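User: Modeling request: complex.
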Amino acid sequence: MRPYKHPAASELSLERVLYALSDSIRLDIVRHLARVEAATCGELDGGRPKSTVSHHFKVLREAGLVLTENTGTIHMNKLRRADIESRFPGLLTAILAQHASA
Amino acid sequence: MRPYKHPAASELSLERVLYALSDSIRLDIVRHLARVEAATCGELDGGRPKSTVSHHFKVLREAGLVLTENTGTIHMNKLRRADIESRFPGLLTAILAQHASA
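Assistant: Request completed. Predicted assembly structure:
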């Protein structure tokens, strides 16, 4: 399986990061990843259909928020916290500090 | 002309605010409003077509970021900074602190 493409930290766009976080499923995934070292897609999908979740992971990867690595047959996901912090200081911390919307 | 509807501060959604700020035109409008007390749509449209800009103002109003008031025949826009701050402490400051994307 081909490795996923991920943008370099220097290529990240504020608008794209905000868009990626403007969806409650994607925000949940990022909140979960902020609490753990790494997680499989299955641990993060909340029982949602794979096709739906795959799309959300793609948006998160393309925004530079999530790194997905193929480890054998499973995909491990990590939050690119250091990259986001270096490009947008304080941004992710401020967003993750907010309570989930009602 | 009917007054515009604006959500109460307690009704604001994090995802909706992030979505509203995920577009470079809307982000520019909010950056501009953060520097001034109030501005007309014409002062904020950057020469863009009125139909385009009207849509962006609607998204910003519905997210609770912008208050539009009819003052005679002109519309004055203000950033709802205190409302956003009360609902999402530190969020807007962190976003506005970022450099505009390349």
